[in-house]
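Hi support team,

I submitted a single chain yesterday and got back a structure, but I'm not sure I'm reading the token output correctly. Could someone confirm the output below corresponds to the sequence I sent? I've pasted both exactly as they appear in my results page.

Thanks,
R.
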Amino acid sequence: MDLFAPRSKNDWKSWHSLWKALPCLVGFLIFASQAATENDAACRQRTSFGTISDCERSGRSGYHCSYVFPVDGEPYTGDSASDSYRLLGHTVVVYYDSQKLTMISLEDFAVKSRKDRNIAYIFLLMTVALVAFVLYSKVKDREDSKRRAI
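Hi R., thanks for writing in. Yes, this is the structure output for that exact sequence:
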């Protein structure tokens, strides 16, 4: 099944095929927004030492760890993805946004922002490539239609 094949002979007049790039554009917007949020948090980032209270396998390539950490003498709990298994009671560095204590991670926010920004660029590149391919197909179909009409 050809996803880019025209629905009819006159489909070059329709812009329907451009909708195929929408999922890539949505992916770009989501990851770009997340990267911007993490970049802002990196400016206000603070660290604390936390203690792992639970760590479970999550998906194919990672773990999900819960931990307890102090901020100004008050205990807070958090959970984050981790690339490695952490033992119960293991001490870890916890990164948190000093203005928004709901943003907590076991990874530096600047590093997370860079990773999300790179993924956003990939989605943007895919969007541009799909739009260019659809537009090229439209032009090619239009030229073929004109040649057949002559």
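A quick pointer for reading it: The chain has a mean pLDDT of 85. Let us know if anything else looks off.

Best,
Support desk
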